[in-house]
Amino acid sequence: MLRLRVSNHFRHPGQLPVRILAMARQEPMEVHRHEFAELAIVTAGAGEHLTEQGSYPVAAGDVFFIPPELPHGYARTQGLGLTNVLFLPSHLPEPGDELRAMPGWRALFELEPKYRDMHGAAGHLRLPPEELARTMALVRALDNECREYRPGGTTLVTAVFQQLLVMLARSYVPNAAEAGRRLLAVEKVIDHIDTRCTDELSLDTLARMAGMSLSTFKRAFRGVTGTSPIDYVMQARLGRACHLLRTSETSITDAALEAGFNDSNYFARVFRQRMGVTPRAWRREVTRRR
Is 218:229 a contact under the CB 8 Å cutoff? Predict the structure, then answer.
């Protein structure tokens, strides 16, 4: 598989960790990977975005994030215009708590790339024409600063890049594709399960949290995660139990109860089904490997 390298796309990565690569007409491109991150903005036309698991359509206004080393490509392009914002995450400031707390930031840069191939149609951002125009004006300013690189350029490029991230994060919630809206709703439930897996968690409660009917919620949850809500809760509780068995002297019965299982016999049965061994044998093996 073709691998695009930092050395071929960044002249001075230590000074300028951002580069703009505009393609007025993107031809079909085989699935490839790159060492750097990429924010792809579709400026015109249409085509298919390829991943190792399949493909989905993209059109003008679509914005999606490609993390380093994630394989992707393009096919069936029809006047496809792309502007790629290439950047080196390790050379840029870590996103602050305020930015990370924005639902749009989490969806665009964390959730959508993670679940892209599970839910079949990407939950990418889709900018309306006026917002696409504002975004591209900022990208052009970023490109000009990268090309000229005057004193203070690194500071200014970093600041304008951060401005671009905030602009896109703000745009995600009102402009996400349908799959993106489902993604945000299901992510809210996933976060609740991950932090409260030991609580009583009924399907009705989780569906209300997502703002969906029960049947719609179950379909959406499986579409995003590839599994059912009940199965996800069970896996979260097993993970909690494994953590207790691995890091404490808690008895197997107490570990089961603390992880949200009301019956230690049921816990042992589920554990063996999913882990292939009994809780006691699993703990013994983990202890032996220390």
Answer: yes
| Cβ atoms of 46 and 79 closer than 8 Å | yes
For residue 246, give the nearest of 234, 257, 255, 258 by alpha carbon: 255
Q: Which domains does the chain have, with CATH numbers?
A: 3-176 (2.60.120.280), 178-290 (1.10.10.60)
Question: Tens digits of per-residue pLDDT, 83-123?
Answer: 999 999 999 998 888 988 888 888 888 877 877 655 445 57
pTM for this structure?
A: 0.74
**Residue 68 exposed, middle or buried by CB count within 10 Å (0-12, 13-18, 19+):** middle
Closest CA to 123 of 34, 196, 224, 45: 224
For 139-170, what is each residue's pLDDT tens digit?
Answer: 999 999 988 888 888 899 999 999 999 999 99
Cα–Cα distance, 126 to 132 (Å, whole number): 9
Instruction: Answer whether 37's CB lies under 8 Å from 66's CB.
Output: yes
Spatial distance between the Cα atoms of 118 and 83, rounded to a whole number of angstroms? 26
Residue type, 104: G
